[in-house]
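Hi both,

Apologies for the delay on this - the queue was longer than expected. I finally got the zinc ion-bound model through. Below you'll find the protein sequence and the ligand SMILES exactly as submitted, and right after that the structure tokens for the full complex including the ligand.
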Amino acid sequence: MDRRGFLLLAAGLSGCSVAASRPRQAERMIEFAVVIRGGRVIDPGQGLDMSVDLAIEDARVAAIGPGLRGRIVLDAAGCVVAPGFIDLHSHAQTVGSHRLQACDGVTTTLELEAGALPVAAAYTRAGVEGRPLNYGYSASWASARIEILAGHLGDRRATTMLARFADPAWQREATATEEDRILGLLSSELAAGGLGIGVLLGYAAGTRTREYLRVARLAAANRVPTYTHARALVAPPARMDGAEELVRAAAETGAHMHYCHVNSTSQRHIDRVLGLVARAQAAGSRVTTEAYPYGSGMTGIGAAFLAPERLSERGLSPSSLTYAPTGERVASASRLRELRATDPGGLVIIDLLNEDDPADQAMLMRSLTFPGAVVASDAMPVTWTAPPADPQAWPLPPAAITHPRTAGTFSRALRLLTGEGSRALAGEGSPPRGGQLSLGHALAKCSLEPARLLQDRVPALRGKGRLQPGGDADIVVFDPDAVTDRASYLHSTRPSEGIRHVLVNGAFVVRDGHLVADARPGRPVRAEPR
Ligand SMILES: [Zn+2]
């Protein structure tokens, strides 16, 4: 039997029992490509949490056990070795943005809420350019509407999409014929491998609930989830409460409805919305949720729900908004109109919950600790306040801006959920430390649970979110005493700290705390063909 054959055999036979027992003679003889030595290996799926070696070969976890030998040996004493983080909500699908997420422990980053159109072209472009992290896209309902109702073809860029959100043409009610065309386009996008349907419902107030239900039925028929940015809660001109509408779609169609960023969409209604979700789940509906650990949101300033006359729906005013390119706090409704007209795709920070207010912070944490809720960043594309001399430069220069969640969501979530991490916050305000979950539970919310949420139709995710022989070598090694976010609203592209190594398909993207600039080991994550 050749060496590769042995490894596959080891993968097929071994598991937790290997980790807990002495390695076989043959495993001790092999010199693996990489051995991570003596770290605290945590695999939430098996309940494995022990100090042991982990070996990597041919992009896979080859063995877990003591005394393994490797051509490259990483001393991981004092560090945690965990499945790489899987981000279900990232609009940051460029090399530079992937790097920021890599420094936060992310190994797979998926654009599911907005999606891409055409998905095939998005996969092709990422494959040709190369990506540091594994990537994938849902079918984009908003882009389908923009194409059919407003006549703009998608160019697959998040920044273009943000600017087009301001166009009222795509936000109106569709005729029955137009609905048919939108559904037809989405259907072909699912056939092309889309990972479900992203539905930015909250951005298109004219949409009838009937159309939303049709989208959900299409997803159910294809056995893929939808990922909804819900409408506002009980506010005109929404036709119904956004949370009620989402759970109704799950109950009426049988679709898996994933509730995006329940923290920011719900604001101070988080407890009511989570109660509604819990009742829907108890009644047998498949409704899942995600959250990110920041009090402020971000989108393009031209979004319909940021029109001055609509801000009150969310209890906001112009001064709740900060125009990110300049850091300008918007002083008035007239200034807001001006910014929306001159730069509709410009990024804007939206104050939703006050991170300095213990009651708000506790509510935010409840959105993260809700059973089954996964950590997802809503990472924003890195944009530039001045033309970059070198868009591939690393570290990112100060002219690069984003929301701090792009760089810091996972480190921050780990720190807040477990109380791990000892550094002071870099950002404004000091949220109280949560410390409510075990490290294994918090890690499951970052890796295993997102993988399980999608794996029914996405075979690639069955080998991710776990550390088992034969599984993908998407691995994060971090110092639990040092891991912390460093990005703030003022310094939004500071990478996280304490992440020692990140491997994607067995290749280093972060090594010894430093980004590997030329690493492009990311692979596409697609739904299986029907
Ligand atoms: Zn959203």
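Main takeaway for now: The chain has a mean pLDDT of 90.

I'll put the files on the shared drive as well.

H.
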